[in-house]
Design a protein that fits this description.
This protein is α/β, with parallel strands linked by helices. It folds into two domains: 68 residues, Helicase, Ruva Protein, domain 3 (Orthogonal Bundle); 195 residues, Vaccinia Virus protein VP39 (Rossmann fold). It is 37% helix and 20% strand. It is built from ten helices and nine strands. Strands 5-4-3-6-7-9-8 form a seven-stranded mixed sheet, sandwiched between helices. The chain has a two-stranded antiparallel sheet with strand order 1-2. Helix 1 packs across helix 2, helix 2 runs antiparallel to helix 3 and helix 9 packs parallel to helix 10. The radius of gyration is 20 Å and the shape is globular. The N and C termini lie far apart (66 Å). Its EC number is 2.1.1.297.
């Protein structure tokens, strides 16, 4: 029966040989996941049940399945989010959207704000915002019914279920009302580039959440004209964008009646969040 340290070393070596970019980290996370405990004592013996789980984890990781998919949960904004096949993994770059939105609302945190999250997935953007805006309530929309169920479960997991609702739908179709903040991380990868993505993304993230049409701008075109009627006076829109898409998205939104109010870079220095208000 190996110790935690021995199991981690063996798995890290296997992952390194398979070309993993982070074999040590992956091995630590998977060993701890097999035990159901963080920061496990390196000298602890790995029980047979945990060893069986770890063997399964190892096979899946070596086949290209991402660590967080294997574990079924990923942290975002310091909060846990459960995953499902219908949802993207929440990624650190998307925290830029939350940061940008909160900066824009800095003087309004105590207000009863109405939030809208389009293409909500796990609900990570909406739930992170609700965790910070204690008087706000929000609605998350997703084309996938399964994603809506996952998001609702994550709202309960993070204690905001009383202020969050999730609804199956296609973008703004059928929506009415007035929102102080609209956020979205829409699909923005051009269809022709899907096949070039890493196996972790291409085979494990839902295509519905990746494919932005021929030029990656399809969802932005749909939203450009439909968002202004949904914005309250003083309302804000914050989008996530892909690399180099800023000028095109700004042009689309301006044509639809929104005014560009700035952008925010992610930790890698890439323009990630675009901010708009009513023109």
């Amino acid at each position: 029966m190996p110790t935690v340290w021995e199991a981690r070393r063996h798995l890290a070596q296997s992952l390194l040989r398979a070309g993993s970019a982070s074999p040590g980290l992956d091995a630590r996370l998977l060993v701890e996941g097999s035990l159901g405990a963080d920061n496990a004592d390196p000298d602890t013996l790995l029980p047979a049940e945990a060893r069986a789980r770890l063997d399964d984890f190892a096979v899946r990781r070596l086949a290209g399945e991402p660590v967080w998919r294997i574990l079924g949960e990923r942290e975002f904004w310091g909060l846990p989010f459960r995953l499902s096949p219908a949802t993207l993994e929440p990624r650190p770059d998307s925290e830029t959207i939350v940061e940008a939105a909160l900066a824009q609302l800095a003087g309004r945190r105590g207000e009863e704000l109405a939030l809208l999250d389009l293409g909500t997935g796990t609900g990570c953007l909406l739930i992170a915002l609700l965790s910070e805006l204690q008087q706000a309530h929000g609605l998350g929309i997703d084309l996938s019914e399964e994603a809506c169920r996952t998001a609702a479960g994550n709202a309960a997991l993070n204690g905001v279920e009383g202020r969050a609702a999730f609804q199956q739908g296609s973008w703004t179709e059928g929506l009415a009302g007035s929102f102080d903040l609209i956020v979205s991380n829409p699909p923005y990868i051009p269809s022709g580039e899907i096949a070039t993505l890493s196996v972790e993304v291409r085979e494990h993230d839902p295509l519905l959440a990746l494919d932005g049409g021929a030029d990656g701008l399809g969802p932005y075109r749909l939203l450009a004209s439909s968002l202004p009627p949904l914005l309250a006076p003083g309302g804000i829109v914050v989008f996530e964008i892909g690399a180099g898409q800023g000028p095109d998205v700004v042009a689309l939104m301006r044509a639809g009646g929104l005014e560009f109010s700035g952008s925010r870079n992610d930790l890698g220095g890439h323009e990630r969040a675009l901010i708009f208000t009513l023109a």
